[in-house]
Amino acid sequence: MNQQSEHRTLTGKTAIITGASRGIGAAIALRLAQLGANVTIDYLSNDERAQHTKQHIENEADAQGRVITCKADVTDETQVNELAQTTANTFGGIDILVNVAGIIIKDSLDDTDLERWNRILAVNLTADFLTIKQAVKRMRKQHYGRIVNVSSIAAKHGGGYLGGVAYASTKAGVAALTRGAAREYAPDGI
Predict the structure, then answer these.
(1) For 115-146, b where at least 16 C-beta lie within 10 A, e where not — what string?
(2) Where would I find the H helices in 22-126?
(3) What does the pLDDT look like over 124-172, one tens digit per residue?
(4) CA-CA distance, 20 to 16, in Å (whole number)?
(5) In b/e form, how buried is each residue of 42-54, taking b as 16+ CB within 10 angstroms?
(6) In 10 A of CB 37, how many CB atoms?
(7) Sequential DSSP letters for 100-152
(8) What's the confidence (pLDDT) of residue 8?
(9) What is the pLDDT of residues 21-45, one digit of tens each?
(10) Fewer CB within 10 Å: C terminus or N terminus of the chain?
(11) Contact 32, 96 (CB under 8 A)
């Protein structure tokens, strides 16, 4: 831990991290728990991987926050509502939302059919919209909240190395959603 982060604490705060059973999401969940936050690990399909991530965080000597897992498809409004409610019921609220869940489609635009287009749009952009709305309901009551949405350099480049046009389009949408939500919710301390 560097000197600056030793003075930072999230003790008593609660975070939801979507797509947190592995990769970037798991690393963020671990770091937030190390800083004292209670963490909800959202995942879609791999129960074993989610439990492994939870156990890894709990076994970390410097992880101070409590951890739960919650299986939820963040493209489904009902499941997102349940994710937020489970988190709020378990930890007493939601202070931090980190939207990591995402998929990459590297197909060219010509090779992307409507079903694949709609799927990547749902996972990479609509899910952020749904989770933000649920988190903000709770954050407004406490006049505090932090929302982080993970985008991609592909948003600026229109695809390429990391994904095709569909992927880049969704990540550009995430960037615009983030800027707009920041302006809209800033007066609420979010």
Answers:
(1) eebeebbbbbbbbbbbbbebbbebbeeeeebe
(2) 23-34, 47-59, 77-91, 114-121
(3) 999 999 999 999 999 999 999 999 999 998 888 888 767 799 999 999 9
(4) 9
(5) bbbeeeeebeebb
(6) 26
(7) ---------TTT--HHHHHHHHIIIIIHHHHHHHHHHHHHHHHT--EEEE---
(8) 75
(9) 999 999 999 999 999 999 999 999 9
(10) N
(11) yes
pLDDT band at 94 (very low <50, low <70, confident <90, very high): very high
The tally of CA atoms less than 13 A away on the side-chain side of residue 16 is 37
Of 39, 5, 43, the closest CA to residue 21 belongs to 43
Q: How far apart are CA 100 and CA 186, in angstroms?
A: 22
What's the confidence (pLDDT) of residue 135?
98
Amino acid symbol at 82 = E
- Known catalytic residues? 167
Q: Copy the structure tokens of residue 133.
A: 């709305």
Phi, psi (5° rounding) for residue 82? Answer: -65, -40
> How many other C-beta atoms can be found within 10 angstroms of the C-beta atom of residue 103?
15
